[in-house]
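BUG: 3D viewer hangs when loading the predicted structure for this chain

Environment: internal workstation, default settings.
Expected: structure renders.
Actual: progress bar stalls at 90%.

Input used:
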Amino acid sequence: MMEILKVFKEKLKKGEAVYGPFMKTGDAAFVECAGHAGFDFAILDMEHGPVDFFHLQNLIRGAEATGILPVVRTYNSSETAISKALDLGAKGVQVPQIQSVEEAREVVKAAKYFPKGERGVCRFVRAAGYASTPRNEYFAQANEALVILQVEGKQVLNHLDSILRVEGLDILFIGPYDLSQSLGVPGQVSHPDVIAAIRKITEQAKQAGVVTGVFCDTFEAAALWRNAGIQYLSYSVDVGVFTEACTHIVNQLKSQ
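Structure tokens produced before the viewer hung:
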């Protein structure tokens, strides 16, 4: 999995786009399908999905088995939520609802071992091969995991410059739906105000040398944001993709 993470980071460094869905079902088969399909990453969603930590480890195994990078969206920014996901083998944590530079720093502190942070130390976890990985090797590898911060409300724009300077931040992820709500147009992710806000965030991040990400659920939106320089593109959700496919099949069958 470290090789997959290395390749992933090299793609971002080269300015390439990476693509992956959110996964909410809690079934590792969906993660495997995404890997076989050729996605770069999968966001295993603990914020809005039903998965618990016991089942999360199997989703991560599904990702490892098919060569797709497992990123866990934690249910909040607590140290426990972050460290448990990483202990189970996540190669990145995507932490929602970041509103301040203080929160951003605390996330990095919780995700990294000394000297980069203060993550709780335990080698008897899945990520360390249950203590079979030499300790120094494990700590060094663990500190390579991605830290992805989600900014989702207009109020965070006032603190964006300081958040972007937080050492240890790898990707700044823009949540368009929560952003649209904070702008008074809930769900209207293609509203001019939402588009303008995302462009502003992307430009600030570009100037700071930070990779940006965004959620999109249409090919047109994916192309728009890729052309705007966003590299980490989360395309749709496993259950949404399945619903769309089922709807198309039913319509085709009934039209015969």
